[in-house]
Amino acid sequence: MLFRVFILLASALLAQAHDGPGCGTAPPSPEFLAVGRQLAERENIARHDNRISRVRRTIEVDVYLHTVATSKDKLVSVGTFLGMDASQMSVLHRQFAVLLKSYLPYGITFHLKGTTETINDKWSLDKDEMGMKRALRRRLPHPQHLLRRGPPRRPRGSEDFYRDGCSVLSSTVPGGSMADFRLGKTSVHETGHWFGLIHTFEGGCVGDNDLVDDTPAQASASAGCPKGRDSCPLKPGLDPIHNYMDYSSDECYSEFTSGQIDRIHSFWDKYRK
Ligand SMILES: [Ca+2]
Ligand SMILES: [Zn+2]
């Protein structure tokens, strides 16, 4: 449990600043792709040698959940919106439960270590990303490295150190206001990136796409739940519309592939363990 992921639940107002759903994670950098190729090669060798089962161990992640809103009533309103009183599970915990449930079949567990609530207009409107993340990032008892967009290793105190987490709009939490994305699965998608996964539609029908062998190539992101979609007819397999790393609706999302879980583990071993 060396690493902690933090999840920011921005004010519902933030949703209006964006044109509908879409992931804010930047496309993979050449350095990130190079690392992915390296890991893919290693995984293939391990699979060939029948060592992959040893690669897979339980991954345990400590999590801090932070809620940011423009006003106290906005913080409260998300909870009341769900019709829950104080004795019931909070929105944060429900959001967290979705993460837990989605990753549990793959031997990945999350430990909720703390939650915070902050009223801050600027932060809620995404006007001071680094200020917010510097303030909210929780300290670890020992040095760590991380991989995000840039070169693989970034020291504590660097911008990438503070960016190393996931953010989702409050409209995407369970019971949120964003149509098709109100079951909390956005957090599963975003943590997928945090674990080193790339969109399944990355690179389209050519090349090595998401650098995972068992996710069929996709020409573009799916929308909704287009059963039978085959956007790369010359490549094997139908589009992985149920995969968490596509853009399908929350109801459609249901799986990571075996290859993606192998990647999560090898990425974890290399950078986060
Ligand atoms: Ca693939
Ligand atoms: Zn994404």
Give the ordered list of helices and strands: EHHHEHHEHHHEHH
Bound molecules: calcium ion, zinc ion
Largest sheet: 4 strands, parallel
Question: What is the total domain count?
Answer: 2
Query: How widely separated are the two ends?
Result: 8 Å
Computed structural class? alpha/beta
Can you tell me the residue ranges where pLDDT is under 50 for at least 5 consecutive residues?
Answer: 1-6, 9-20, 76-82, 141-152
Structure notes:
- This protein is α/β, with parallel strands linked by helices.
- The protein folds into 2 domains: 4-197, no CATH class; 199-255, no CATH class.
- It contains 10 helices and 4 strands, in the order βαααβααβαααβαα.
- The protein has helices spanning 12-16, 30-48, 52-55, 72-81, 91-103, 121-124, 129-136, 159-163, 185-194, 258-272; strands spanning 4-10, 59-69, 108-119, 166-169.
- The chain has a 4-stranded parallel beta sheet.
- α5 (91-103) packs across α9 (185-194).
- The N and C termini lie close together (8 Å).
- The protein binds calcium ion (CA) and zinc ion.
- Residues 209-210, 212, 215, 217 line the site of calcium ion.
Give the gist of this structure.
The chain is α/β, with parallel strands linked by helices and 273 residues long.
Task: Give the secondary structure arrangement, pairings included.
Blueprint: E1 4-10, H1 12-16, H2 30-48, H3 52-55, E2 59-69, H4 72-81, H5 91-103, E3 108-119, H6 121-124, H7 129-136, H8 159-163, E4 166-169, H9 185-194, H10 258-272
Parallel strand pairs: 1-2, 1-4, 2-3
Zinc ion (ZN) binds next to helix 9.
